[in-house]
Amino acid sequence: MIRGYAKNGPCEEALKLYYRMQQAGVQPDNFTFPFLLKACASLSALQEGKKIHEDIVRGGFESDVFVGAALIHMYTKCRSLDIARQVFDKMSTRDVVSWNAMVAGYAQNGHPETVLGLFDDMRREDVAPDRFTIVSVIQACTHLGALQQGMWFHDYITRSGFESDVFVGTALINMYAKCRSIDIAFAVFDKMLKRDVVSWNAMITGYVVNGNAYEALMLLRRMQLAGMKPNHITFVGILSACSHAGLVDKGWQYFHCMDLDYSIMPRVEHYACMVDLLGRAGCLYEAEDFIKNMPLEPSASVWGALLGACKIHCNIQLGEHVAECLLELEPENAGCYVLMSNIYAIAGRWDGVEKVRKIMKDRGLKKIPGCSYVELNKKVHCFVTGDRSHAQTDEIYEMLETLAGKMKEAGYVPNTTFTLHNVEDEVKEHLLCSHSEKLAIAFALINTNLGSTIQITKNLRVCDDCHNATKFISRIVKREIIVRDANRFHHFKDGLCSCGDYW
User: Fold this and answer.
1) Which residues of 48-79 are buried (b: 16+ CB within 10 A; e: fewer)?
2) φ and ψ at 332, to 5 degrees?
3) pLDDT tens digit string along 375-396?
4) 186: Cβ–Cβ under 8 A, 6 or more apart, which residues?
5) Strands of 481-484's sheet, edge to edge?
6) What DSSP line would sit under 390-451, residue for residue?
7) What is the DSSP letter of 229?
8) For residue 330, how many other CB atoms are within 10 A of its CB?
9) In terms of Cα–Cα distance, which of 476, 353, 65, 230 is closest to 219?
């Protein structure tokens, strides 16, 4: 019964049965605890999990490899990585399931560097990985944008016989697509002997994030001809493709055909895509009406899409209303405040900017710091805004100073709209100069060969000034610069960007 509730829910019933079991004097065994811990993990019930852990220690089951793996899984699901690692390190015997629990825990909690290190430890201890280990490591490479490590790992996968696995193949497609190698992603996809809908979706989404909207739409047609029925995730990708390409009429066609042709009722994420499509195209009030007539309750993603459009088109009045709706759902959403502050800044409403910043300060909210990654010789270098911790800091800032002079000669004018208004222009320009992506680009220019492509990964949307500056830099240094930000890929070459300044 405990197993049934833990696997199928409600998980609370599994815990209630355990307490009844204790009251009845029935002793649990090593089969009982993994299912109880699974229930705690599903509920994120850390305190209950800790109590069960105490029972495990009292009962002498801590050395059981299955119980140990379940403990690790529970603690990582409850975001207690330190305790999970203590359990892992204390285990006298660790099988592949134990390693997978720890590897997946780090991967799912945003520690990709640790995942790669743990995989090396696993190999040194001669523990053979399985498909779950492989996918976690691929996901870590994806998160870091670590193409070189990903390619080495792909070779390892081929030698280990995992390449034919659909699960692994799909993860590889996703990795290459998000590491700016869409052609290799398609080669992996095309080579797959068996594809499921997830594989097709990964390739479609890969095209979308790389700015290849028309290729994504063509792949949908190929998917239909192959007899593979698209699902709701497929249409999230397709509607996103229409949004990035500004294909409003096409977007409406696909949105309506979901129900008419495939009996797929649009979900809130599809409505968010449509709002994004309409908003980017400047149809702000049509997007607002669309939200008002939704049969579902608008989510934060729906209002967020419209707020982003208000920023693009500098509509303060609508932006204020949308921000209020968004903050009703997510009052602690720092990103909403930042967007509203930017809207005020564009319009020169510095009183509004100060008001928003004061609210953020009073509520203890902080903007997520910008962070950019660049891979060199299989090592990932990380830069944050204003970073001076790197061993090559002096060279990096010298390179930026040299570039700044050449950029101004070429006509570049720093966009100081979003910087503090009550400081000198020279200080504003200095603040812009030290944005994380510019530091990463300067580092790459210093350490890579002339003419080679520079590849950067950023955790946030690239700002307007950095986007413009990177266009100038690509023309000056005669290099292609590829930046993957939180929204999409930007391929900068000869002073132009693949997004057409529409992102």
Assistant:
1) bbeebbeebeebebbebebbbbbbbbbbbbbe
2) -105, 15
3) 888 788 999 988 899 999 999 9
4) 203, 206
5) 379-384, 371-376, 454-458, 481-484, 489-493, 496-497
6) STTHHHHHHHHHHHHHHHHHTT-----TTS-TTS-HHHHHHHHHT-HHHHHHHHHHHHS-TT
7) P
8) 14
9) 230
Give CA–CA dist 129/131, Å, rounded. Answer: 7
Q: For residues 475 and 412, give the distance between their C-alpha atoms in angstroms, rounded to a whole number.
A: 12
Q: What is the pLDDT of residue 192?
A: 94
Kind and range of the H or E run holding 247: none
Q: Which pTM was predicted?
A: 0.77
- The percent of residues in the chain predicted with pLDDT above 90, rounded, is 71
**What residue type is 415 in one-letter code?**
N
> Cα(221)–Cα(234) distance, rounded to whole angstroms?
12
First CA to last CA across the chain, in angstroms? 52
**Alpha-carbon 321 to chain mean position:** 28
Token pair belonging to 496: 């132009």
Q: Give the pLDDT confidence of 121-153 residue by residue, as tens digits.
A: 999 999 999 999 999 999 999 988 888 899 999
Q: Taking a C-beta distance cutoff of 8 angstroms, is the pair 58, 25 a contact?
A: no
Q: What is the pLDDT of residues 72-123, one digit of tens each?
A: 999 999 999 999 999 999 998 999 999 999 999 999 898 988 999 999 999 9
Q: What tokens appear for 401 in the block?
A: 């100073």
Average pLDDT, the chain: 91
Q: Computed from CA positions of residues 102, 106, 107, 111, in that sequence, does the dihedral angle turn out positive or negative?
A: negative
- Partners of 67 in the β-ladder: none
| Helix, strand or coil, per DSSP, at residue 389 | coil
Place of tokens 């080579």: 191
The backbone region for 454, taken as left when phi is positive above 0, alpha when psi lies in -120 to 50, beta otherwise, is: beta
How is residue 314 written in tokens? 């500098």
Residues 6+ apart with CB under 8 A from 362: none
- C-beta pairs of 382-385 under 8 Å, 24+ apart in sequence: 383/436, 383/437, 383/439, 383/440, 383/443, 384/436, 385/434, 385/435, 385/436
